[in-house]
Amino acid sequence: MAVVITQVGVITPFGRGLSAFQQGIADERIVLTEHEPLQWMEESKAGIISDTKSFRQYLQRRKAAKLMTPAARWAMDAVGQIWDVVGTQLDPVETGLFFSVGREPPDEGEAEDALIASAVDGLFSEEALAKKGRSLYPPLLPLKTLPNLILGHLSIHFGLCGENAAWSGEGVQSFIEGMWAIEEGRADRVLVGAADSLVDLGQARDLKRLGIEDAPAEAAIAWLLEHEKQATGPALARVEFIEEHPSVSEQHRLRLQMGYCGVVEEQLELLRSLLLDQTVQWQGLRFHGTLQPYE
What is the pTM of this model? Predict the structure, then answer.
């Protein structure tokens, strides 16, 4: 049985869409820019997505944007690029959804009032939390900070009801599991991908503590994997399982151009390799084909 890639959606600091990504790679363009939230750090550059509004066209309710983290917005945009092309051909009940997401993002200050009210003489107090702090905690804050809610946002706004799963901190597994879903007959097609945003001060600081010296970045990618016999369009690449487990060559090459984008990095490196080579071996999979940008 053959699994094929028929569509790709991607948004990175290079821009929105496969053409922008391919051009950034071809030009070897460095897209790191000064980022004000990081001004107090020794290195204040980051890989920032400049198109911050395109994801809104895919929202069922515009107010929902207030509950979405940056990573969720970029995931919405990447999937939306595929939806623009083949959305009317996808059965939302039968289309699977598998996404890799980053770790829990910070709350960007929404819980500060609750934390201040829960302290006595500068120390956290459970009694103060129970009396005053709890009432000041934003009730909807968990809906913003839970990383697997990216899956929820995508399911709600695109009406996806098929098999789904999210992996926090694991950039490869979503793609592998999407392949297995088709291989085992649990789905004829699946949307797989990854989304992460590490450009806020808290996460950039934590990267330094983890020994990652590269500039932080944000990005998202989505792939439409389909059973070849039920494909909605021409194959951009064929994919098959193999016994070897080599990695994509030149890992971390993109860090030099756009920074470190967490769980998205490996799938972007795969995309980069597919744009340059006809045959790629990656994580126990072999890809054959020539990806070309679609308009």
Answer: 0.89
